Amino acid sequence: MSNTKSLISKMKNIKLFNTKKLSVIRSSIFDSRYFFTRGVSLVEVIVGTSLIMLSLTGLIGAYSFYLKAGLQNTDHLKSVFLLQEGVETVTLMRDDSWSNLSSLTSGTWYYLSWNGSKWVSTTTESVIDGTFKRAVKLEDVYRKNSGQDIVNVSAPDPKTLDGNTKKVTVRVTASSTPLLDKQVVTYLTNLFE
Q: What is the pLDDT of residues 74-99, one digit of tens each?
């Protein structure tokens, strides 16, 4: 009899355990909160992934824009350096001999060339770095008879040609960037002769 009682008690324990297990499974499967919680986490993943993708797309677009702008800025910087070099070159030519400038035809565009020992002017067009063209134009300078101010040749004031001063215009253009056309204007005087 004791064996029977122990067997019945074991069966009750098993039945109770299975009943509890079934009720836990039933409550978790059919509980609406269970489905709602899992659905929200899936929506959160989709929304989070979408936000990350949008932000990455924005960052890549911004990077592309700034890279393009930076490359265009490189051409502008090179042109400014070429302008500065052009003015310094004409100054070196003036320092070597004033006749280097006074012998050039006024109002004509010249190109600068390095002959191995010094800078010279030429009428042959030269291309720098396969992109840039630099030209130099020298013009006569007129001064007012009263006050010695520089005036335009077409000014109505009485004026005199100043043979020891030249108006220098340096111009740089680029074939790769059609809108890139820079120039600088300055004056040089005969200091050493």
A: 888 899 999 999 999 999 999 999 99
Name the 3-class secondary structure at 147: coil
Give the model's pLDDT for residue 16: 47
pLDDT of residue 153: 81
- For the stretch 97-101, contacts whose Cβ atoms lie closer than 8 Å and that sit 24 or more positions apart, written own/partner, are 97/193, 98/164, 98/190, 98/192, 98/193, 101/138, 101/166, 101/188
Residues comprising the chain, all counted: 193
Token pair belonging to 14: 């098993």
Q: Which H or E run includes 179?
A: none
- Tell me which residue of 108, 81, 101 sits closest to 184, measured CA to CA: 81
**Strands in the chain per DSSP E:** 109-114, 119-122, 127-128, 132-144, 150-151, 159-174, 181-189
